[in-house]
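Example 3.2
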Amino acid sequence: MTDTARAVSRAATPGAADRARSPRRGRLSATQWTGLGFIAPLVAFLAIFLMVPIGRGIVLSTQEWTIRSFVTGEAPFVGLRNYADVLTNPVFPQIAWQTFLFVTVSLVFQYVLGLTLAVFFARRFPLSTTLRSLILLPWLLPLVVSATTWRWMFNQDFGIINSLLGGADIGWLTDTSVSLWAVIIANIWLGIPFNMVLLYGGIQGISEGLYEAASLDGAGPWRKFFSITLPLLRPVSAVTLLLGLVYTIKVFDVIWVMTRGGPVNSSHILSTWAYQISFEADRDLGTGSAVAQLLVVVCLVFGFLYIRAQRKEAQS
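Structure, written as tokens:
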């Protein structure tokens, strides 16, 4: 076959011209290099500040890392023994229940009160912007400052909470039966602004025409709320509750400043317990890391459940 015939044959082959003009396989185009350049800082940030600490925590949770290890630098590999020690610890069921109670009650009241305020401020009235800004103060203040303020307020002798209860003598921070509820109340107060901001933004995205049409059909305020506002806020509510779960399950500052997990472990949750095991009581970083990894697993489970729910909703 002559050279001319070969050229005609290649030209007649489908996609031959495109392959001739396309760059060599395996070589990135300028656009792809630009995209990689933009995404590289994010990947580096996640690797350094997220993946490396998580990986280090997993390694620590499989080692016997004690005070002696700080001196010798030796931490024997123990496999899953640290996890077994955590799960068989007689205190673990109590702290797991307190963590569940702390997270559940905080999320419910933060969401309900945040949604109530979001609906309230969705109406236009004088000073609404000023009042909404004042409600954001708990979110803007440092957690240590807020927790210290609540510790003073819950003081048994001169706290304002007992004064408002008619001079009651309740040891909010020293009584094992109420210490957990004291930190729950403080955490609810801290989380309301976050929920209000997200839900208020979601309400602002709902068309006013829907409410006007509902009014023409004779729907009242409650009917509008349950038939329009609440269903259309479902995606925003899911994000709000998921972020609230992640933030609440790892709360440390509030509890540590107010009660340090006491008295007698009555206000400990998994995050504060992990810190106490790692840096105070036994200074056992291996066991403390095992507790921390349990928190990571819980957050990952709820994150995957959220992604799955979102995919089902998108497909329906």
